[in-house]
Design brief:
Largest sheet: 6 strands, antiparallel
Shape: elongated
Oligomer: single chain
Number of strands: 13
Strand content: 5-15%
Structural class: alpha+beta
Helix content: 40-55%
Length: 688
């Protein structure tokens, strides 16, 4: 199949202005295998996308020009995607200090609901002049299915951020959205409108549930507690307390820094300080101050031991980022392939309208000629009636062809625009395809097994299933580790301090006060950091579950899931082989149908011309002429349909081989950003 453009050196399609002859150039070649269609397209015949013309370099370029060229080359085409997350502006002075606490939330940009300006540049005089490459650019920028899928990698990256903080995985909906379908070729389709229903036909790569050891909270925490109060307690022993109402004014606070690590270690550093003031006379110090500094370290030695177990959620989350990117790529491939199908079916529908118009003109000419002959008595009146019936049948065929075009335009508008048919710009616009379908005379020959191996290396589904297996193997480590007993080693060291001023109402009941403790909070802190009163403790904690049925069931369940994923990978590989071989046969069949249809159409033209000459000579009948007209219309329709089927077979073959992006010069960087660098414009002389 050759698709070229007469207004550009790029081999992307054959421009066909209204009522102008076609001048094809080679672009696509039909693959063949073992002498039949099915091998890879001839990439050597594909010209790269056009680049802006630049002047020829001077013999001795300036070093500054070289440096500028290097810098410009290093800058990415699009620094910002359609989806963006903005970090808040930090307040002055204190912003640097509160940044680690993320007090202010990040902001996600609003969803983009308007189309890019590219579509406006292609509209003139109520027509949307569209080439295949412009169609692809509009789909990449405006298609809602791709736009929805574009959020998947961003959500997956936020799940990684969540996992790195110790959170569980969240389910990310990255289901493949079903592509649109073409209308029926027999008339207006009422059951299939070609609009994506939004239902997923794929499975998500994320894991919503997690069994086994809970992941550690890897974000450190600072906690503080402060309390101040007054208590009054009635007492009956006035001699002992010196009062009938015991009062206490107290104040205490506690600060703690805690952190968990991927090794299964957790640590907490706690500082505590308190002040108490009683209205009694037998305490040596009043008020008195006390405090301590405590360091506690815990280490899991069996269950929850090691980075592979405690980091498995992070590993799975990072794999899911790759999975979401692959799903976006698959959505782009599927949507672009469907859009090209719609486009070339629209080309065939327009050709069908042209054929029906020619058939109607031929039937009308026969009807008018029969009227003149019947008026002079050279032809029976019944022949006029038969010719009129043929005119009515041709009008019906033309109406069906025109409604096919109208409905196909509606579906295609919905694919290339975010507003769809409700857009005031597109509502009354007619799509004029600038590319034509041409079937080349020959094709490259490649063995089927080579094609299968290439498809297995390129197909996104294989890579996604491989990631699913890796994820399940990673999660299996957690459920296996959960079979072990819980053995935790701990170590704790505490430094204490005590001080206070002398109680002026002390009754010397307990002897003189020890001078070392006379002081305030400064004395307490000095005792703590000098480690005058240390406490040490260490030990082990063992917990052995009896029977452990829950962990046993989880481990076996994860093994079963792993086996299922392995079978799904094998099924995907088998399906790739089926897809490639089926696509090869489809190309072979499409080529044969086209060659047969083209030959039948040529014979039908010759038959009609001969029958008309015989009728003019009086040796044929109106029935034979009408039948020849019907045969030519049927043969022409079959040829147009065979060309559309061939383009569909070629697109299906590229999709089966995983070549859709390469074949159509699509950059995933541009697809992910939703911005295409190539400029679009109406070719000169097309819309005059």
């Amino acid at each position: 199949m050759r698709i070229t453009n007469q207004n550009s050196n790029r081999k992307v399609g054959q421009a066909l202005p209204p009522a102008s002859p076609t001048q094809p150039n080679d672009l696509w070649t039909v693959p063949q295998v073992d002498g039949v269609a099915g091998a890879a397209p001839n990439r050597a015949k594909r010209a790269p996308l056009p680049s802006p013309q630049s002047p020829a370099p001077s013999p001795c370029p300036s070093p500054w020009l070289i440096l500028a060229a290097v810098l410009l080359t290093a800058v990415p085409a699009f620094a910002q995607s359609e989806v963006s997350i903005t970090d808040p502006r930090l307040p002055p002075i204190v912003g640097h200090y509160i940044a680690p606490f993320h007090v202010q939330p990040r902001v996600v940009a609003p969803a983009k609901l308007s189309d890019t300006p590219r579509i406006d540049r292609l509209i003139r005089g109520g027509n949307l002049y569209l080439s295949a490459q412009d169609l692809i650019a509009l789909v990449l920028e405006n298609n809602l299915d791709i736009a929805v899928q574009r959020y998947g990698p961003f959500i997956a990256r936020e799940v990684v951020r969540r996992a790195q903080g110790g959170g569980l995985l969240r389910n990310v909906d990255t289901s493949l959205i079903a592509p649109p379908a073409s209308v029926s070729t027999t008339g207006v389709s009422s059951s299939t409108n070609g609009l994506a229903a939004g239902t997923g036909i794929g499975s998500t790569g994320t894991v919503a549930t997690l069994v086994g050891v809970s992941p550690p909270n890897l974000d450190p925490q600072i906690s503080a507690q402060f309390r101040v109060g007054h208590t009054t307690t009635p007492v009956t022993n006035v001699v002992a307390y010196g009062t009938s109402a015991l009062t206490d004014n107290y104040l205490y606070y506690q600060l703690q820094y805690s952190q968990q690590f991927a090794t299964g270690t957790s640590a907490a550093l706690t500082f505590f300080n308190e002040r108490y003031n009683y209205n009694i006379n037998y305490d040596q110090f009043n008020p008195y101050f006390s405090g301590y500094l405590d360091l506690t370290v815990n280490q899991s030695l069996l269950q929850g031991w090691g980075r592979p177990v405690n980091s498995r959620v992070i590993i799975v989350a990072k794999n899911n980022v790759k999975w979401a990117g692959l799903q976006l790529k698959l959505q782009v491939e599927t949507t672009v392939a469907a859009a090209l199908d719609l486009y070339y079916y629209l080309v065939s529908f327009n050709d069908a309208v042209r054929i029906k118009q020619q058939a109607l003109q031929t039937a009308q000419s026969l009807y008018e000629g029969n009227q003149k002959r019947a008026a002079i008595g050279a032809l029976p009146a019944i022949e006029v009636t038969r010719a009129a019936a043929q005119v009515s049948a041709s009008q019906e065929d033309l109406l069906i062809a025109q409604t096919n075009v109208a409905q196909q335009e509606i579906i295609l508008k919905n694919v290339l625009s975010r507003a769809g048919v409700q857009s005031p710009v597109l509502e009354e616009v007619h799509i004029v395809p600038l590319d034509r379908i041409e079937v080349p005379p020959s094709a490259e020959v490649r063995p089927v097994q080579d094609l299968v191996q290439e498809a297995l290396a390129n197909r996104v589904e294989i890579q996604e299933n491989t990631i699913n297996i890796d994820n399940q193997k990673t999660l299996l480590k957690g459920s296996k580790n959960n079979l072990l007993p819980s053995l935790t080693g701990f170590f704790e060291v505490t430094n204490n301090g005590l001080a206070g001023p002398l109680n002026p109402s002390y009754n010397q009941c307990c002897g003189p006060a020890y001078p070392y403790f006379i002081g305030g909070n400064g004395s307490v802190l000095s005792q703590i950091f000098r480690r005058n009163f240390p406490n040490y403790s260490t030990g082990l904690s063992l917990n052995i579950p009896i029977r452990n049925r829950q962990a046993q069931a989880d481990y076996v369940t994860d093994q079963l899931e792993l086996r299922r994923y392995q079978l799904q990978l094998q099924r995907a590989e088998n399906q790739v082989r089926v897809d490639v071989k089926t696509a090869v046969i489809g190309l072979q069949q499409a080529r044969t149908r086209y060659e047969t249809a083209a030959a039948a159409r040529a014979l039908a033209e010759q038959t009609l011309a001969a029958e008309q000459k015989r009728f003019e000579s009086g040796v044929s009948t109106v029935e034979l002429v009408i039948q020849a007209q019907k045969d030519l219309a049927t043969a022409s329709d079959a040829e147009v349909e065979s060309m559309a089927n061939y383009s569909h077979a070629q697109i299906t073959f590229d999709l089966a081989m995983g070549r859709t992006l390469e074949t159509n010069h699509i950059s995933m960087e541009e697809a992910a950003a939703g911005k295409v660098a190539r400029q679009s414009s109406i070719p000169e002389g097309v819309a005059r």
